[in-house]
Design brief:
The complex is a heterodimer of chains A (112) and B (114).
Chain A lengths: L3 E4 L2 E4 L5 E7 L5 E7 L5 E8 L5 E2 L10 E5 L2 E6 L8 E9 L2 E4 L3 E5 L1
Parallel strand pairs in A: 2-11
Antiparallel strand pairs in A: 1-3, 3-8, 4-5, 4-9, 5-6, 7-8, 9-10, 9-11
Chain B lengths: L2 E4 L4 E4 L4 E3 L1 E4 L6 E6 L5 E7 L5 E4 L2 E4 L9 E3 L8 E8 L8 E3 L3 E6 L1
Parallel strand pairs in B: 2-12
Antiparallel strand pairs in B: 1-4, 3-9, 5-6, 5-10, 7-8, 8-9, 10-11, 10-12
Classes of the chains: A mainly beta (112), B mainly beta (114).
Chain lengths: 112, 114
């Protein structure tokens, strides 16, 4: 199995600022994923982050708003840039390890 | 496109009651189907899965059968416990990119009362 540590677990941020969320895995993994869960809604995939290449973004998400880094096989960051209240969500990272997918506990972001 | 629809919650049951949470999907091809659970204060974790038609996934007393003819993957448990109180998500895989790219339903909150 994989243990995923996400930081911060929650934050309250001012609009117009940026927040970087960190995701650390205890195993080397090829594929890492970032999801968003808006209030009362389901999880939506933001992007896929592979080590050594640019992240692949899903429709409706762009690199300027959600830049992602993937410096090695155990770590990734997601930045939520120029935040607005609409960005208030839970952000989760997940990894694919063998036939299974594991999730972090999420970062609860509130933008005021 | 691919999508997952779950019954709306919250679902409130008494301990030892029978549970059904409905899940239907639309997809091209033959996706794998999953149920994930999120207990209060914890991360999302896999509950069970099925990878092909007529497969039955099971874990912790929960079961779900992959029904291709009705495009459904309903979650059932014969006797729920207070400790089953959580949010349950039905999900399917994208057709490309492995199991990590998941499409989720909106989640169903289950509350079990003693």
């Amino acid at each position: 199995s994989a243990v995923i540590s996400q930081k911060p677990s929650r934050d309250i941020c001012q609009r117009g600022t940026s927040l970087t969320i960190q995701c650390q895995v205890d195993s080397q993994v090829t594929m890492m994923f970032w999801y968003r869960q808006q209030p009362g809604q389901s999880l939506t995939l933001i992007a896929t982050a592979n080590q050594g290449s640019e992240a692949t973004y899903e429709s409706g998400f762009v690199i300027d708003k959600f830049p992602i880094s993937r410096p090695n096989l155990t770590f990734s960051t997601l930045t939520v840039s120029n935040m607005s209240p609409e960005d208030s969500s839970i952000y989760l990272c997940s990894v694919e390890l063998g036939p299974r997918t594991f999730f972090g506990q999420g970062t609860r972001l509130t933008v005021v | 496109g691919n999508s997952v629809t779950q019954m709306e919650g919250p679902v409130t049951l008494s301990e030892e009651a029978f549970l059904t949470i409905n899940c239907t999907y639309t997809a091209t091809g033959y996706p794998s189907l999953f149920w994930y659970v999120q207990y209060p204060g914890e991360g999302l974790q896999l509950l069970l899965k099925a990878t092909k038609a007529d497969d039955k996934g099971s874990n912790k007393g929960f079961e779900a059968t992959y029904r291709k003819e009705t495009t459904s993957f309903h979650l059932e448990k014969g006797s729920v416990q207070v400790s089953d109180s959580a949010v349950y998500f039905c999900a399917l895989t994208r057709l490309t990119g492995g199991t990590g790219k998941l499409i989720f339903g909106q989640g169903t909150t289950l509350q079990v009362k003693p």
